[in-house]
Amino acid sequence: PTRVFSGIQPSGGLTLGNYLGALKRFAEMQKDGVETIYCVVDMHAITVWQDPAKLRQQTREIAAAFLAAGVDPARSILFNQSQVTAHAELAWIFNCVARMGWMNRMTQWKDKAGKNAEAASLGLFAYPALMAADILAYRATHVPVGEDQKQHVELTRDIAIKFNNDFGVNFFPVTEPVIEGVATRVMSLRDGTKKMSKSDPSDQSRINMTDDADTITQKIRKAKTDPEPLPDSIEGLKERPEARNLVNIYAALSRSTPEAVVAEFAGAQFGAFKPKLAELAVSVMAPISDEMNRLMADPAEIDRILGDGADRAEALARPVLDEVHDIVGMIRSR
Ligand code: AQP
């Protein structure tokens, strides 16, 4: 990768799924020769109504989570989306490039709008065009995301290709999703076939990044499992979604592989495995949540970091937007 972009919505507290599937990998992508641009996507969050005071608080909390997970504002650009107007400007142009049919096929749109699509916001429908603008305003080459966002990155590619074709240019790159590791889809602790999600009504279904050690331990102890002991190879996890999920979480938290975890715990009962997993989860997550609390005590410093990131993001996006306006035929005379 040469230029990486990714974002997280400030639409609620973050889960272990967001940490393992996104934040941890964002930090790992900070390497020499790679530009990393990370965004708290507040404009995406308001596609469903957000209380203004909560939106502000959650934006700072997500920024604190990025920092606590190891995103270094000296190496990476970290900002909130609405401070860089290029996102909204490019999104409008992409609204005119993308087709209604493409948006209609998005599974997240179908899930979130549900049966009452008539009452959903226009923004929720257009969400993937804004996401394409987030990525392509920087002509980013790679986007690290969880499995659930794959379809939206594919749509970003379609928009880039159609824009290039419509205007006879080779301007936007065809961005690659980066979906790798064992935690690209962390599942609910109550149902191994459902994604762990911040919007699940059951708090027992997820580990929140702000949960304390006792809460983490208690949620893992109560996590749904089957009565069998752990198998001696990962083939034995095939029809066991809950068991597989806990093994994958263990592997991701210990920077190991499911194969190695299964080899270590072959034949163990969940009564023995769960306390080990809880101990590991607490040892990884507690320092991160402590650091988040420390950062949250100084909101002015978080705002300063976001403002500085926005200045640097703006400097990258503005020349791209200038070229886009020119390609489309929009006069810039001042
Ligand atoms: N369970 C998960 N496993 C792995 N990765 C996940 N991500 C989310 N859930 C999991 C990844 O986290 C990044 C940020 O997600 P987001 O907040 O922008 O949107 P989301 O995917 O809608 O997150 P949630 O928690 O599932 O929220 P709700 O409940 O509102 O739908 C993305 O890279 C995502 O893949």
UniProtKB/TrEMBL annotation:
<feature type="binding site">
    <location>
        <begin position="9"/>
        <end position="11"/>
    </location>
    <ligand>
        <name>ATP</name>
    </ligand>
</feature>
<feature type="binding site">
    <location>
        <position position="186"/>
    </location>
    <ligand>
        <name>ATP</name>
    </ligand>
</feature>
<dbReference type="InterPro" id="IPR024109">
    <property type="entry name" value="Trp-tRNA-ligase_bac-type"/>
</dbReference>
<keyword id="KW-0067">ATP-binding</keyword>
<keyword id="KW-0030">Aminoacyl-tRNA synthetase</keyword>
<feature type="binding site">
    <location>
        <position position="134"/>
    </location>
    <ligand>
        <name>L-tryptophan</name>
    </ligand>
</feature>
<dbReference type="InterPro" id="IPR001412">
    <property type="entry name" value="aa-tRNA-synth_I_CS"/>
</dbReference>
<feature type="short sequence motif" description="'HIGH' region">
    <location>
        <begin position="10"/>
        <end position="18"/>
    </location>
</feature>
<feature type="binding site">
    <location>
        <begin position="17"/>
        <end position="18"/>
    </location>
    <ligand>
        <name>ATP</name>
    </ligand>
</feature>
<keyword id="KW-0547">Nucleotide-binding</keyword>
<keyword id="KW-0963">Cytoplasm</keyword>
<dbReference type="InterPro" id="IPR050203">
    <property type="entry name" value="Trp-tRNA_synthetase"/>
</dbReference>
<keyword id="KW-0436">Ligase</keyword>
<comment type="function">
    <text>Catalyzes the attachment of tryptophan to tRNA(Trp).</text>
</comment>
<dbReference type="InterPro" id="IPR002305">
    <property type="entry name" value="aa-tRNA-synth_Ic"/>
</dbReference>
<feature type="short sequence motif" description="'KMSKS' region">
    <location>
        <begin position="195"/>
        <end position="199"/>
    </location>
</feature>
<protein>
    <recommendedName>
        <fullName>Tryptophan--tRNA ligase</fullName>
        <ecNumber>6.1.1.2</ecNumber>
    </recommendedName>
</protein>
<dbReference type="InterPro" id="IPR014729">
    <property type="entry name" value="Rossmann-like_a/b/a_fold"/>
</dbReference>
<comment type="similarity">
    <text>Belongs to the class-I aminoacyl-tRNA synthetase family.</text>
</comment>
<feature type="binding site">
    <location>
        <begin position="146"/>
        <end position="148"/>
    </location>
    <ligand>
        <name>ATP</name>
    </ligand>
</feature>
<keyword id="KW-0648">Protein biosynthesis</keyword>
<feature type="binding site">
    <location>
        <begin position="195"/>
        <end position="199"/>
    </location>
    <ligand>
        <name>ATP</name>
    </ligand>
</feature>
<dbReference type="Pfam" id="PF00579">
    <property type="entry name" value="tRNA-synt_1b"/>
</dbReference>
<comment type="subunit">
    <text>Homodimer.</text>
</comment>
<dbReference type="InterPro" id="IPR002306">
    <property type="entry name" value="Trp-tRNA-ligase"/>
</dbReference>
